[in-house]
């Protein structure tokens, strides 16, 4: 008799919102081999599914994600080889994180608790972050003799500046939700009792927005991060030209004129 596969990732789609939930609360949602496989499949499906207009990544229990399951790095009493570690990053984590950053849909990190190591990388790869007061970001690689990974060496300095990023990388000290909000890393901090309600409210609002216009905004920002000001202006012109030819633009202008006529 076949053994039922554990659900390390739970997926629900409702009202245009695709909820992807880390589901190992007993391990604070640490990411192991099965988690990576299920998470990769879930992210890929969310991008392809036309019924999903917004993606929410969150956790079960008291953590968002506590990072990689270090116990799997010592399988059968043997440390994984350096090549194994590098290959997992290149072949498994990199495609998932890149997909989150580039998919033509808004992605919200609903940080129901701490985001540690590669868990922080997932939160930072999302477009918007909402957190409970107890949440924090922790780059704890230094504590086990590793360097930052999961794209955080690129993302974190752009969000907080090199000084704060270096201090986090060198000391392994957490960045609280309050400080992350002050620095602009987290969009808002919401009490636990209102957390899911506010996440749902924002996700529902975004699901009702013109999807191609949101996709164009995301492309514009991602392009601008690697461009000169003049290159960003040119790319915006290209995107705006495409949007001006879309039905979204026609519908938006008609709705605007109808509202003005009522005043």
- Nearest-integer average pLDDT: 93
Radius of gyration: 20 Å
Distance N to C terminus: 68 Å
CATH-defined fold name of the largest domain: 2-enoyl-CoA Hydratase, Chain A, domain 1
Q: How are the strands ordered across the major sheet?
A: 1-2-3-6-8-11
Which class do the helix and strand fractions yield?
Answer: alpha/beta
Explain what the structure shows:
The chain is of the alpha/beta class and 263 residues long. The chain folds into two domains: 9-207, 2-enoyl-CoA Hydratase, Chain A, domain 1, CATH 3.90.226; 211-262, Lyase 2-enoyl-coa Hydratase, Chain  A, domain 2 (Orthogonal Bundle). The protein contains ten helices and eleven strands. It has a six-stranded mixed β-sheet, sandwiched between helices. The chain has a three-stranded mixed β-sheet with strand order 7-9-10. The longest helix is centred in the middle third of the chain and has 21 residues, at 82-102.
């Amino acid at each position: 008799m076949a053994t039922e596969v554990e659900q390390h990732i739970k997926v629900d789609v409702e009202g245009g919102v695709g909820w992807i939930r880390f589901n190992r609360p007993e391990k604070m949602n640490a990411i192991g081999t099965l988690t990576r496989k299920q998470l990769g499949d879930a992210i890929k499906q969310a991008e392809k599914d036309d019924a999903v207009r917004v993606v929410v990544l969150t956790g079960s229990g008291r953590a968002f994600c506590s990072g990689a399951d270090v116990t799997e790095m010592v399988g059968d009493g043997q440390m994984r080889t350096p090549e194994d570690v590098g290959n997992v990053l290149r072949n498994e984590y990199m495609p998932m994180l890149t997909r989150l950053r580039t998919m033509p849909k808004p992605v919200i990190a609903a940080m129901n608790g701490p985001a540690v190591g590669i868990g922080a990388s997932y939160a930072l790869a999302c477009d918007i972050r909402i957190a409970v007061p107890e949440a924090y970001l922790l780059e704890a690689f230094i504590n086990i003799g590793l360097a930052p990974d999961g794209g955080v060496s690129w993302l974190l300095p752009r969000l907080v500046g090199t000084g704060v990023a270096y201090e986090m990388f060198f000391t392994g000290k957490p960045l609280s939700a309050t400080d992350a909000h002050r620095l602009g890393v987290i969009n808002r901090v919401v009490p636990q009792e209102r957390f899911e309600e506010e996440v749902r409210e924002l996700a529902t609002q975004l699901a009702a927005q013109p999807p191609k216009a949101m996709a164009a905004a995301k492309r514009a920002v991602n392009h601008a991060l690697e461009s000169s000001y003049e290159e960003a202006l040119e790319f915006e012109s290209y995107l705006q030209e495409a949007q001006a030819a879309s039905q979204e633009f026609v519908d938006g202008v008609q709705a605007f004129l109808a509202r003005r006529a009522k005043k």
